[in-house]
Amino acid sequence: MAIRQRTASPVTTGPKLIAWVAAQARKGATVVGVCDGVWVLARAGLLEGREATGHWYSFDDLRKAYPKTQWLRNKRYVADGKVVTTTGVTATIPVSFALVEAIEGRENGFRRADRDLGAPADGIPGPLTRRATPSFHSC
How many Cβ atoms sit within 10 Å of the Cβ of residue 17? Predict the structure, then answer.
């Protein structure tokens, strides 16, 4: 059986995209890399010296290519300052509510989760629990 090797997509390696993402981060934007979008953040130099996660399929390649990043397994997303990385698209729901919490405050985050998910925020595994720390954190 042949082992499939990953090749870099022109979309994630384009110098214009990488420069744009880096410029947004320098302006103070919160940047989010979803799934293999973490490659863009890594190539922009935004993950060096930070904790991050990525899709399981790329995890070993990411660790080898970017050894100055502390790659964390078994986290749906990792927020290190204003740089957020996720394992995949299924992590976008909890990370989206965590972003709402970071921008609008905890109570608005809880209300939005209650309304949009139809369940009390305390029942959501991940960032929105009454026991959570008040700051944007990793899940």
Answer: 15
